[in-house]
Design a protein that fits this description.
Layout: H1 2-5, H2 11-23, E1 73-75, E2 81-86, H3 106-124
Antiparallel strand pairs: 1-2
Length: 125
């Protein structure tokens, strides 16, 4: 699989080993999955899919995204606002941040409502 994906030899095994080590304790320090979605991957078969933009329908569909204020200001890992950086819609963590309760088109309302708030807030700055 590494050769087919053109990944340096050993990297896939190292990544899987790291994931499994943390998953055994219900943790995911790299992608911060919710505990109920974490499970050690110890038995195949496995497959790989090209999810790059332009190839996969949902490759840009984050089902979560960046943490933001109600005015769309992006929050850093420390919880503080990153000055001048805004997000809204599917790239912001709003209504469907955990993937539960999502229905198709949710991000359209979020994008228009919170996008307007973000635009107004940015204009005032």
């Amino acid at each position: 699989m590494e050769a087919a994906l053109e990944i340096p030899k050993g990297n896939l095994v190292e990544t899987l080993d790291r994931y499994n080590e943390y998953a055994a304790h219900g943790q995911d320090p790299d992608f911060h999955k919710q505990p109920e979605y974490i499970a050690p991957q110890t038995k195949g078969p496995w497959a790989a899919f090209d999810l790059s933009l332009g190839r996969a329908m949902y490759s840009g569909f984050t089902m979560g995204g960046l943490a933001v204020t109600v005015d769309g200001e992006v929050l850093g890992e420390d919880g503080g606002v990153i000055p001048g950086l805004y997000a809204a819609g599917a790239c912001a963590s709003n209504i469907a941040q955990d993937g539960k309760g999502y229905s198709s088109g949710t991000q359209l309302g979020e994008g228009s409502f919170f996008g307007r708030r973000a635009g107004r807030h940015a204009a005032r700055r």
